[in-house]
């Protein structure tokens, strides 16, 4: 009898594990459905956008499936907030919107390459996160199994690779910077140095991680406003709160 009871307990545990695994397997696609993706990025295929036809929903999902923790970790609110933050930041990086226009925050994913291609060529900004610099191309390539040092154009010609580089950057801590993933999930605890530098948990620190030297510690600026606008729009669409500390106006950058 005891043996059968133990087997029954194991069976229940297995069913629960399968149920949890099934929910995780649905992953990002259960939150960012195809229709949601289209609604979030209504102009990505606009004829005015150089990236039209590139950032497909299928490419996004295929890339997300290679990072099991991305958009699948924590509570339902955690998941929504992380995805809103990811799309908020990457939409700003690729925006084709006009600041101050009524539809400013509806033009994410309009570009797939840095416009003037002047930053660290040939390793200028590409993809949703605008991956920049030889070191990032090298590290990202090693992580996803692609030689991006010798083939940097893969980031702007292969949409799955492009999304994977953005997700690699998002999920990976570098130097004294936490991962964007952990910040979005509120799992980052500032060090004494972070506190002294005004770096506090919130969306603003993610901006600091991505583009610290150009946007943080210099007061209110249009780039921060744009990032926050996109994020706020997506939080509203996904039904989650933005949380506090949305900007990095008074934060010293991580490199200081």
TrEMBL record:
Keyword Transcription among record annotations: no
Entries under InterPro entries matching the protein: Glyco_hydro_19, Glyco_hydro_19_cat, Lysozyme-like_dom_sf
Disulfide bonds: 49-110, 216-248
GO biological process, alphabetically ordered: cell wall macromolecule catabolic process; chitin catabolic process; defense response to fungus; polysaccharide catabolic process
EC top class named in words: hydrolase
UniProt KW keywords: Carbohydrate metabolism, Disulfide bond, Glycosidase, Hydrolase, Polysaccharide degradation, Signal
Reaction catalysis annotation: Random endo-hydrolysis of N-acetyl-beta-D-glucosaminide (1->4)-beta-linkages in chitin and chitodextrins
Single GO MF descriptor: endochitinase activity
The keyword Disulfide bond belongs to this UniProt entry's keyword annotation: yes
Signal peptide interval: 1-25
Residue ranges crossing the lipid bilayer per the database entry: none
Active-site residues, record numbering mapped to chain: 93 (proton donor)
Domain Glycoside hydrolase family 19 catalytic intervals: 49-71, 161-171
EC identifiers of the protein: 3.2.1.14
Pfam family, one: Glyco_hydro_19
Name of the protein described by the UniProt record: chitinase
Organism: Leymus chinensis (Chinese lyme grass)
UniProt lineage: Eukaryota, Viridiplantae, Streptophyta, Embryophyta, Tracheophyta
């Amino acid at each position: 009898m005891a043996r059968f009871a133990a087997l029954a307990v194991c069976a229940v545990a297995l069913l629960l594990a399968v149920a949890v695994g099934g929910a995780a397997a649905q992953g990002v696609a259960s939150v960012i459905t195809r229709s949601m993706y289209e609604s979030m990025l209504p102009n990505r295929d606009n004829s005015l956008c150089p990236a039209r036809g590139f950032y497909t929903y299928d490419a996004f999902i295929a890339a997300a499936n290679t990072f099991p923790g991305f958009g699948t970790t924590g509570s339902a609110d955690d998941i929504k907030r992380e995805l809103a933050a990811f799309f908020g930041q990457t939409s700003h990086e690729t925006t084709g919107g006009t600041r101050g226009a009524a539809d400013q925050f509806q033009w994410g994913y309009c570009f797939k390459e840095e416009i003037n291609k002047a930053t660290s060529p040939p390793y200028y900004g590409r993809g949703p996160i605008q991956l920049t610099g030889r070191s990032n191309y090298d590290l990202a390539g090693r992580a996803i199994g692609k030689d991006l040092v010798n083939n940097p154009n893969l980031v702007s010609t292969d949409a799955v690779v492009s999304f994977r580089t953005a997700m690699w950057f998002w999920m990976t801590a570098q130097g004294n910077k936490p991962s964007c993933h952990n910040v979005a999930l509120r799992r980052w605890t500032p060090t004494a140095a972070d506190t002294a530098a005004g770096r506090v948990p919130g969306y603003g620190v993610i901006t600091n991680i991505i583009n610290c030297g150009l946007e943080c510690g210099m007061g209110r600026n249009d780039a921060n406003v744009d990032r926050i606008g996109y994020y706020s729009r997506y939080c509203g669409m996904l039904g989650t709160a933005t949380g506090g500390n949305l900007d990095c106006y008074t934060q010293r950058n991580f490199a200081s």
